[in-house]
Design a protein that fits this description.
Elements (H helix, E strand, L loop, with lengths): L1 E5 L7 H11 L4 E7 L18 E5 L2 E4 L3 H12 L7 E8 L11 H11 L3 E7 L12 H15 L7 E7 L9 E4 L10 E7 L5 E7 L11 H6 L2 E8 L5 H8 L10 H5 L1
Parallel strand pairs: 1-2, 1-5, 2-4, 5-6, 6-7, 8-11
Antiparallel strand pairs: 3-4, 7-11, 9-10
The chain binds manganese (II) ion (MN).
Manganese (II) ion binds next to strand 5.
């Protein structure tokens, strides 16, 4: 099985080497095509205004001056054009990708691009808490990741679906289990703007995170992580809301005879 791995934290990120170890435990045919620089928050962006450049950074490993989506396209359509990968893995992200995070995440987007190219794709992220000693539980994805990938590959997936795995901020033996979840929604905060001052006294700004969900609903990705479970959420690339579309069908018209356009169409 040929595996392409990417991430959004950049080719030098520790999470990528963790994902590489996971992939190598599944197959000998593993290829890295990852962004040259940190692309967290890049979402599904494409680089269209400047040329894509890439360089070899190791055996079967390339860094692209671009986004995670660029990397997967470069990987599938250029680096591995002789034989497409059977699986795309993206991550392991430094920090969770839960609830509305999935709309910003470059990690998820790497898996989105693989999915659009018809390749089964899995995103992985590690929840990183605020441990005073800076402990991060990378052993959790290392130990549990290979089995989860094999379990996911043992079942059929609906079309246009990717898998979003989040690991809790726990040592491997402390993880409570694995839960099939749905995308949640945080109920507080959201992103905000932090204003600071530069050397000259001029203001500059950072997008700030201050997001919590006091009591996430059962079966949500947020709940699973809060309860110490690994969360696996199948995400669908078609964003159409079917019930809303049904409602619109009975409301939208141009008025008068032109309503018939709908019937004619
Ligand atoms: Mn990231």
């Amino acid at each position: 099985m040929r595996i392409l791995i990417t991430n959004d934290d950049g080719a030098g990120a520790h999470g990528l080497s963790v994902l590489h170890q996971i992939a190598k435990s599944i197959s000998d045919d593993v290829w890295i095509v990852a962004p040259e620089t940190n692309q967290s928050g890049a979402s599904h962006a494409l680089t269209l205004q400047v040329p894509l450049r890439y360089r070899e950074i190791g055996d079967h490993a390339f860094a692209v001056r671009g986004t995670p989506a660029d990397c997967v396209i470069m990987g599938v359509k250029h680096v591995l054009k002789d034989k497409a990968p059977d699986l795309v893995l993206s991550g392991v992200n430094h920090g969770s990708n839960l609830a509305e995070d999935v709309t910003y995440s470059g990690t998820i987007a790497g898996a989105m691009e693989g999915t659009l190219l018809g390749i089964r794709s899995i995103a992985m992220s590690l929840t990183i808490g605020f441990d005073p000693e800076g402990r991060q539980h990378w052993k959790s994805p290392l130990e549990h990741g290979p089995r989860l990938v094999e379990q996911l590959l043992s079942v059929d997936w609906p079309e246009s679906t990717l898998m979003n795995i989040n690991y809790p901020d726990l040592a491997p033996g402390d993880v409570k289990g694995v839960a099939a979840t749905r995308q949640g929604r945080r109920d507080q905060g959201g992103l905000h703007i932090q204003e600071r001052s530069d050397t000259w006294g001029d203001p500059y700004f950072w997008v700030g995170f201050e997001r919590r969900r006091a009591d996430p609903p059962k079966d949500s990705d947020l709940r699973a992580i809060a309860d110490g479970f690994i969360s696996v959420t199948p995400l669908h690339l078609n964003l159409t809301h079917e019930r809303a579309r049904d409602t619109l069908g009975g409301v939208l018209s141009l008025g008068g005879d032109r309503n018939r356009l709908k019937d004619a169409g």
